[in-house]
Structure formats: C-alpha cells, structure tokens
C-alpha cells in the first residue's frame, strides 16, 4: 500500500485482503459504542423490554440487509463506496458529488464525536481544557487513520475489548441485586414510545454508516465473509449493546444511563466514552478521507493522496470541535444523512439487477486487478432518482425516512432506466463515456 494510500482510487490487491475476523472487529467497533447505549436506554425508558427487543431486532435486520448488499459488491470489486459509484449508476460527476457529501458529512460527525472524546478526557483527568483535548485527540486519530486499515484494525483490537469490559463492569454495578425477570416484565418507566418510532430510531441512526460498508468490506475476499461480518457486527453490536442498555434503563428508571455509569464507575465510565468514540471516530475520518480523495482525484487526475486528505479533514474536524462550532451544524449533518441512503438504492439496482457495467468490471478485475478503462461522465436518470429519494426522505416522515429515501431512489431509478431503454430501443442503457483517468 504505497504511502499508506490504502487503495483509495484503485482496487484492493489480492495480497492485502484481510481475514474475516479482522475486518469484523473493525466494523463491530462501529456498532458497539455509546450511541448504541443511548439508543437502547431511550427505547428501554419508553417501552417494555420485549417491545424494545423486537424494535431493535427488526431494525437490525434492515441494517443487515443494506450492509450485506453493498458489502458483497465491495468484496468482489475491491473498491470503496465513493469509487464504486462510478460504475454503479453515477459516473464521474455523480461520484464526485457523492464523495464530497460523504466527506463533509463524516468529517462533521468526526468533529462531534471528537468533542465528546475531549470532554471525556477532561472529566477523567482534570488536565488542560476541552479545546486542548480536542486537538490532542483529533491529532491522535489523524495519525491512526493516516496509516490506513491495518492501524484501524490494531486500534479496534485494543479499544473494543476495553469498551466491552468497561460496559460489562458498569452494567454489573447497575443490575446487581435486580431481578432480570422483573426488569423484563416491568412497564416502561418513561413516556410511551411507539414501535414504529423505535424502529425508525434504530435504523435511521446507523444507516449512513452502513451505506459506507464498502470502505472496509473491500478488504474481504468473498461474499460469505461479508455475510458473517455484517451478521456478527450488526446483531452483537446493535442488538447486544442495546439490550444491555434497555435493562439498565429499566433498572435506573432513567434514559440518562451514561451519566449514571460515569457517576458510579468514575474512570471506568469515562473509559466507556473514550474507547467508544475512539473506535467509531477513526472510521468516520477514514471514510471521509476516502470520499474526498475520490472526489478530488476526478478533477486533479490522480494528484491527491488519501493521507493528505486525512490530515486536512482531521485538522478541520478537530479545530471545529475545539471551538465548539461543530455542534451548531448537527441539523445540517442530519440533512446530509438523508442524501446518502438513496445512493445505496441506486447502486444495488444498477449492480445486481441492471448489471450495466458488470462485464467491464469483471474484465478489468481479471486483467491485472485494474479499473475499467472507461466510465460514464454522468447518468441523468441516477441524479434525478437520487434527488427524488432525498426529497421523499426529507419531507415524508411516515415510516423510516432513510429507508424511504433508499427505496424510492431505487424504484425511480429502475423504472426510469427501463422506460429510457424502451424509448431508445436499447437493452443496456449507457450514457456518454470518457476514459477513467481523463
């Protein structure tokens, strides 16, 4: 991996594919985090245990399906999310836009999570102040991410067990002396939460991260590895952590279990926050660097490296968290989040159903593991479908907005391509192409 560029704008080489367990640990670290604890506590505060269980279960099934679909593509083609979009419906211009959206969105969330880490470090140590800790933790993550996937794996191997251990000890303190049977049968301690809203919270909260599954799944060798990676990480991380938090919310009669855990556990509670945000935030920065590298290499013809983008985006995110301004943009980041799921719907339809570029992808993969020599400049039907999905996801609040946007984009794209093909009397619709590196 030259200069730790981690195959940002090329396919992952066969010799750098990783063992399934190694990639699974990285992805599991994305799900096993304080965000899941907070989600589970919110569900447990407003629902009976088994109602909350089924909300998390069905939400996890949806996330598993999305992650599996895009992960299988990545494992076969060895490409990141934003790079893969060039040959799964969007062409160069669409891929450029997607890369920018992913970069801006995940850099913003990097800043938010980095601020949480800084607060945790300040509370745990009493040293410095939150802005200084924001720069320290941000620069530390830049160093990890700059070295690529292997360092992400190394970090996850350390942080994930420590996080799970800390959560286990804190849960033991909160649940000791409690009857699990009584907790599971007890009424919700807070205002009632409907099943539909709960499922929306489970799925909507992590669908953006699931949409960028190819960024790590491209290091796997086969589709079955993707299945086990997504199955283990989604159900152990999503379902397991949420169920523990649901029980703790019933025991504490509160949804604010993080504060309670820190109060009860001191350094241990702070460790939960620190290790959790460390695991999820390095992936945020990693995916954002891949997205921006793909976007800028389209206009710079390969003159931008992922390491450079990691440093730039990491410093920007760290600075924003240090001055506290990033929290003002959470509404904007949520808005961008609705723009990412429609991309998945279009990718899945183009790759698995229309199969427009499957032959070119296969030939280039067999031929020295290269990229297809040509790509579309843009696909107007994909752009229109993307906009339709985004608008539905943003304005229609019935159901799960992120899933609505994904499904609408996929359906509009499928029928749009079929209608255009029938009108032009072409079995495989293609728009004007240019050479890949032109």
Highlighted features:
2 strands; mainly alpha; 19 helices; 438 residues; two-stranded antiparallel sheet; Hydantoin permease
Overall description:
The chain is 75% helix and 1% strand. The protein is an all-alpha fold and 438 residues long. The chain has a single domain (2-331), classed as Orthogonal Bundle (Hydantoin permease). The chain is globular, with a radius of gyration of 22 Å.
**How many β-strand stretches?**
2
First-to-last CA distance: 23 Å
* Approximate helicity band: over 70%
Largest sheet: 2 strands, antiparallel
CATH superfamily: Hydantoin permease
In spatial order, strands of the major sheet run 1-2
Topology summary:
Blueprint: H1 20-31, H2 34-46, H3 49-77, H4 81-84, H5 91-125, H6 130-146, H7 149-175, H8 180-185, H9 195-211, H10 214-217, H11 223-252, H12 257-265, H13 267-300, H14 306-322, H15 330-339, H16 341-354, H17 358-366, E1 374-376, H18 380-395, H19 401-424, E2 433-435
Helix pairs in contact: 1-7, 1-11, 1-13, 2-11, 3-9, 3-11, 3-16, 5-6, 5-13, 5-14, 5-15, 6-13, 6-14, 7-13, 12-13, 13-14, 16-18, 16-19, 18-19
Quick description:
By secondary structure, the protein is an all-alpha fold. The chain has helices spanning 20-31, 34-46, 49-77, 81-84, 91-125, 130-146, 149-175, 180-185, 195-211, 214-217, 223-252, 257-265, 267-300, 306-322, 330-339, 341-354, 358-366, 380-395, 401-424, and strands spanning 374-376, 433-435. It has 19 helices and 2 strands.
């Amino acid at each position: 991996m030259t200069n730790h560029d981690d195959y940002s704008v090329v396919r992952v080489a066969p010799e750098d594919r990783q063992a399934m367990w190694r990639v699974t640990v990285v992805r599991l670290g994305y799900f096993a985090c304080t965000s899941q604890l907070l989600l589970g506590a919110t569900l447990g505060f407003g629902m009976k245990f088994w109602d909350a269980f089924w909300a998390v279960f069905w939400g996890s099934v949806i996330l598993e399906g999305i992650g599996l679909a895009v992960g299988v593509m990545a494992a076969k083609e060895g490409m990141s999310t934003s790079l893969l979009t060039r040959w799964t419906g969007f062409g160069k211009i669409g891929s450029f836009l997607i890369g920018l959206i992913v970069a801006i969105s995940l850099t913003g969330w990097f800043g938010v999570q980095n601020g949480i880490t800084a607060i945790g470090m300040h509370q745990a140590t009493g040293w410095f102040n939150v802005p200084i800790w924001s720069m320290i933790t941000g620069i530390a993550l830049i160093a990890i991410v700059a070295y690529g996937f292997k360092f992400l794996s190394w970090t996850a191997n350390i942080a994930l067990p420590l996080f799970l251990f800390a959560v286990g000890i804190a849960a033991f303190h909160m649940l000791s002396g409690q009857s699990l049977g009584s907790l599971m049968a007890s009424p919700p301690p807070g205002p009632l939460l409907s099943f539909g809203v709960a499922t929306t919270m489970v799925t909507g909260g992590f669908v953006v991260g699931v949409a960028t599954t190819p960024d790590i799944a491209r290091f796997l060798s086969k589709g079955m590895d993707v299945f086990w990676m997504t199955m283990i990480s989604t159900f152990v991380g999503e379902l397991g952590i949420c169920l523990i938090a649901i029980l703790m919310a019933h025991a504490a009669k509160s949804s604010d279990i993080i504060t309670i855990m820190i109060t009860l556990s001191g350094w241990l509670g702070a460790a939960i926050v620190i290790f959790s945000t460390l695991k999820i935030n390095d992936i945020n920065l990693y995916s954002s660097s891949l997205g921006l590298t793909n976007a800028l290499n389209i206009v710079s013809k390969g003159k931008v490296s992922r390491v450079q983008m990691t440093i730039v985006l990491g410093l920007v995110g760290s600075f924003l968290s240090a001055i506290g301004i990033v929290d003002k943009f959470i509404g904007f980041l949520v808005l961008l989040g609705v723009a990412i799921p429609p991309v998945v719907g279009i990718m899945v339809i183009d790759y698995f159903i229309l199969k427009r570029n499957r032959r070119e992808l296969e030939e280039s993969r067999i031929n020295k593991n290269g990229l297809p020599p040509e790509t579309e400049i843009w696909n107007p039907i994909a752009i229109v479908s993307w906009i339709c999905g985004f608008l539905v996801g943003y304005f229609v609040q019935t159901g799960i907005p992120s899933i609505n946007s994904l499904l609408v984009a996929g359906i509009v794209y499928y029928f749009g391509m079929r209608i255009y093909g029938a009108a032009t009397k072409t079995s495989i619709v293609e728009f004007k192409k240019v050479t890949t590196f032109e």
